[in-house]
Amino acid sequence: MPHDDLNQAHAHSVLPSDAELRVNALETLLIRKGLIDSEALDAIIDIYENKIGPKNGARVVAKAWSDPVFKARLLEDATATVAELGFYGRQGEHIVSLENTDSIHNLVVCTLCSCYPWPLLGIPPGWYKSDAYRARAVREPRKVLAEFGVVLENGEDVRVWDSTAEIRYLVIPKRPPGTEGWSEDALTEIVTRDSMIGTAILPVSE
Ligand code: FE
Hints:
two-stranded parallel ribbon; about 10% strand; Nitrile Hydratase, Chain A
């Protein structure tokens, strides 16, 4: 497994975290008071978890690879540019896109909690919210990348970006060699969630 340490950190946390307990308590209270409807909540979670997932982000990346004008606009003002494709809403108000190049590899974390561009990537994976990832991505990004199986062959500089409620990031991974002439649809299929967080490079080795 490429990120054993992070998985191990999870294995030790058998009890829900304080934050999870607080969320559960709050949800229960709001439902009892009739302020929220648990079915509506489940529907929202289902949309972000299953219907959106990382597919929207993959489409944006494929388009950026295929269309230099789109890419330039994406790097200039990602929020407005992805909104044109219909990708906007909760947790997607201020998106910044970061391009991986031969000299720079971008890695995204939220050191405080789990800020993440929902309209593009869906709900963040468990490890993204883990204490281990949040602390170590900043302290020892290369080691964390190595655990994810990421080998930066050009000795790229690693830039770590700390997400906040104000800014959420989308990494544009490097386009894999051998994909020249591919359609946007075909390119969309090969863009993985982790490559848009910066914890994978493409193509992802098995
Ligand atoms: Fe956060």
